[in-house]
Design a protein that fits this description.
Blueprint lengths: L10 H27 L2 E3 L6 E3 L3 H7 L2 H34 L4 H9 L6 H12 L5 H8 L10 H30 L2 H9 L4 H12 L1 H18 L1 H7 L11 H11 L3 H24 L9
Antiparallel strand pairs: 1-2
Helix pairs in contact: 1-13, 2-13, 3-4, 3-7, 3-10, 5-7, 5-11, 7-10, 10-13, 12-13
């Protein structure tokens, strides 16, 4: 492996300086502020504060509403990640078999990723709105009592599908790249040996996609925890009866709506620790099953 040597010793630091500055400003500084505020009890306008130590954390962890949001987040993130990755893998394998117009199909499947989360949420809300939604009308016509504004399970299903739809395009790109990286000689050898269809996919193709799948598992988990706020806010607003209030949405409700700044900061710190722990767990245990060629 060839080692890169810079003639100017200061140049490498100038090259990485913009990234370091952005990381400090937009990650380390807000994280330190949240950690500081989580130990304070502040008034609604942030004009006065009092040090309370870990009282905010004790209050949050003993709050039934917070524990309920934790359960909602676990269900929502797992369902979103599984659905988004499964649908993307299915579309990627189908697009990989197309001979004519392959580029057109891939372009059309990538477009949804350019849609903003709030816009994606509104699209699905309009389609499934119980008062004027086209798909809501079809469901009611077929005997389904569809009303996600009152039914918590239906609301959860709607936000899961909307969030997964938004992420499918991202997963699709990586799965297509992974499929293209698989040597065709392996597929042809498996076909000669008699491995066909589903068996060939699960025994040859999918194990070779393990690095891509693991990467997307981590990315989709983080996406479900953080980047789905706009979708939930646009579709259900955390309702009905907090049925879709995830941890990140509860941080918003307590901090910006109820103006409980100390509790909101404590929740954001706990959420950050949960995501870090979950990502570390995936790298520690799930990655053992990943084989890199």
């Amino acid at each position: 492996m060839q080692r890169v040597v810079f003639p100017n010793k200061v140049l490498p630091y100038f090259l990485v300086a913009p990234q370091i500055i952005l990381t400090v400003i937009f990650f380390f500084w807000p994280a330190s502020q949240a950690l500081y505020q989580s130990t304070q009890r502040e008034d609604a306008f942030g004009l006065s504060s009092m040090f309370v130590g870990l009282d905010n954390f004790r209050f949050v962890l003993s709050d039934d509403n917070y524990l309920h949001s934790l359960q909602v987040t676990a269900v929502f993130s797992a369902a979103t990640a599984i659905l988004a990755m499964a649908a993307a893998l299915l579309l990627a394998t189908a697009a990989d078999r197309v001979v004519r117009g392959k580029g057109l199909y891939r372009t059309l499947l990538i477009w949804p990723y350019a849609v903003a989360p709030a816009v994606a949420g509104l699209l699905w809300l309009f389609m499934f709105n119980p008062a004027m939604g086209t798909f809501a009308y079809i469901l009611r016509r077929n005997g389904v009592d569809w009303d996600p504004l009152l039914n918590g399970n239906q609301a959860m299903s709607l936000v899961v599908v909307a969030a997964a739809w938004k992420q499918i395009s991202y997963n699709f790109l990586f799965f297509v790249a992974g499929l293209q990286a698989i040597p065709k000689s392996l597929i042809e050898a498996a076909a000669i040996d008699g491995a066909r269809g589903t068996r060939r996919f699960w025994t040859i193709v999918f194990p070779l996609l393990a690095p891509t799948t693991f990467f997307l598992l981590v990315v989709n988990t983080v996406y479900a925890f953080f980047d789905t706020f706009g979708i939930i806010h646009a579709v259900t607003g955390g309702g009905p009866a907090k049925a879709t209030e995830t941890l990140v949405y509860k941080v918003y409700n307590d901090g910006f709506v109820n103006l409980d700044l100390g509790s909101s900061a404590a929740q954001s710190v706990i959420l950050m620790l949960i995501v870090i722990a979950l990502t570390a767990f995936q790298f520690r245990f799930v990655e053992k099953r990943v084989h890199y060629a």
